[in-house]
Amino acid sequence: VIRNELAGQVDLTWSFPPLVRGEEDVWRLRYRVHGALRTLPDQQQLQWTAVYPDRAVRVENARVRLHLPPGVSAAAVTVDGGGGSVEPQSDDSLLISSPGHIPAGRSWTI
């Protein structure tokens, strides 16, 4: 369901039991964003904060997969990976990986 009146106001909160030293857990969060491009006279831009700073734990690694619109090839796109790596994929998407772990209190933006 698309609710335009909530655009930009999505807040996802979840909880999990505390980990004991030496334990780890993996969380995968998937979502789609439509219409997030900023249109400028000479280009279109997407600036996305993939990891927000308001957390008390570090993120070991983060990845963003950018699926491009039909007709746009990965070779035609310039991506600032926020210090991480950018890898074109066989389906013409781009896999953007964080530059290692992201400390608590820090964000990661592409």
Would you give an account of this structure?
The model has no long low-confidence stretch (mean pLDDT 82). The chain is globular, with a radius of gyration of 16 Å. Strands 4-6-5 form a three-stranded antiparallel sheet, with no helix packed on it. Strands 1-2 form a two-stranded antiparallel sheet. The protein has a two-stranded antiparallel sheet with strand order 3-7. The protein is built from no helices and seven strands.
Q: What is shown here, in short?
A:
With 110 residues, this protein is mostly beta strands. It contains no helices and seven strands.
Q: In terms of topology, how is this protein built?
A:
Layout: E1 38-39, E2 44-45, E3 49-51, E4 63-66, E5 85-88, E6 94-97, E7 108-109
Antiparallel strand pairs: 1-2, 3-7, 4-6, 5-6
β content, as a range?
A: 15-25%
Major sheet attributes: 3 strands, antiparallel
| Straight-line N-to-C gap | 27 Å
Give the overall shape, derived from the CA principal axes: globular
Q: Output the number of helix runs.
A: 0
The percentage helix is under 10%
Radius of gyration: 16 Å
